[in-house]
């Protein structure tokens, strides 16, 4: 999935909370406060948001995302095949947790959770149980598939900095989930991506080689948080939406009675 490398859960979380309080004496019932001259309040100017560009896209979007402790997302792929999924990503005590639920034509409903360094897989043949996978267990043939999961969700936009050749506003502002966003057309020259980033992207998209350029549409809020991404590749249209920044669905491990370590395949 492209979301692993274009929009990712941050490795670290920056939490800043500042509370300023002002106090003063109040008039008693026997005292009348002195009249205070009133002035007509001047209009507060609307803050100007700098337009995103090829030179600042990575730093601004990555910086905004790294300040978030959690978010929810949806993924919809249409074309020769279909794929729908939802995911929640959360940082707890500096560790990344993820839960994804998806429906695939040949597999049916599937759920994957990654909590505390362990992966949990739930598929139809397991009923209500989750198969526990230790990504560090070399004896488990599935471990390699899950071993890079944390890397896939913490790469951010690494390797894309020099590959972004154009970032242009794409029409007027829109509203997504109650948030005003500006759509942007983002063009990526895949030949300028770092070798590692290009290889990961090709693997994620299940293609032997990337096309020379990729064109995305990003819908970005004034806070530099991406609310939606859409793009086309090899006849497939992929759309991702992002909501509940800082208030995503909590991600927890399955209950002990729901966990099995018996290989289901």
How would you sum up this structure, described in words?
By secondary structure, this protein is mostly beta strands. The chain has one domain: outer membrane lipoprotein receptor (LolB), chain A. Helix content is 12%, strand content 35%. The protein is built from five helices and 13 strands. It has helices at 3-6, 57-66, 143-147, 149-152, 195-204, and strands at 70-78, 83-92, 95-104, 108-115, 118-123, 130-133, 164-169, 174-176, 179-189, 213-221, 226-233, 236-243, 259-260. Strands 1, 2, 3, 4, 5, 6, 7, 8, 9, 10, 11, 12 and 13 form a 13-stranded mixed sheet that branches. β1 (70-78) and β2 form a beta hairpin. The longest helix is centred in the N-terminal third of the chain and has 10 residues, at 57-66. The two termini are 24 Å apart.
Fill in the keyword field for this structure.
13-stranded mixed sheet, outer membrane lipoprotein receptor (LolB), chain A, single chain, mainly beta, disordered N terminus, 5 helices, 265 residues
């Amino acid at each position: 999935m492209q979301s692993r490398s274009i929009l990712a859960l941050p490795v670290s979380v920056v939490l800043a909370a500042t509370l300023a309080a002002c106090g003063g004496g109040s008039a008693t019932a026997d005292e009348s406060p002195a009249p205070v001259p009133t002035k007509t309040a001047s209009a507060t100017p609307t803050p100007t948001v700098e337009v995103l560009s090829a030179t600042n896209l990575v730093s601004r979007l990555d910086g905004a995302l790294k300040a978030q402790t959690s978010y929810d997302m949806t993924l919809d792929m249409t074309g020769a095949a279909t794929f729908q999924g939802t995911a929640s990503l959360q940082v707890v005590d500096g560790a990344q947790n993820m839960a994804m639920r998806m429906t695939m034509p040949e597999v049916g409903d599937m759920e994957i959770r990654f909590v505390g360094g362990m992966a949990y897989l739930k598929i139809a043949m397991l009923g209500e149980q989750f198969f526990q996978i230790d990504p560090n267990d070399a004896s488990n043939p599935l471990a390699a598939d899950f071993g890079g999961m944390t890397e896939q969700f913490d790469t951010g936009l690494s390797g894309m900095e020099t590959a972004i050749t154009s970032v242009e506003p794409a029409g007027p502002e829109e509203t997504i989930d109650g948030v005003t966003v500006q759509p942007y057309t983002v063009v990526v020259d895949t030949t300028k991506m770092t070798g590692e980033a290009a290889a990961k992207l090709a693997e994620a998209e299940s293609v032997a080689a990337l096309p020379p350029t990729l064109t995305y549409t990003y819908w970005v809020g004034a806070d530099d948080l991406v609310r939606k991404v859409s793009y086309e590749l090899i006849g497939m249209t992929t759309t991702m939406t992002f909501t509940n920044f800082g208030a995503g669905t909590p991600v927890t491990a399955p209950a002990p009675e729901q966990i099995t370590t018996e290989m289901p395949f």
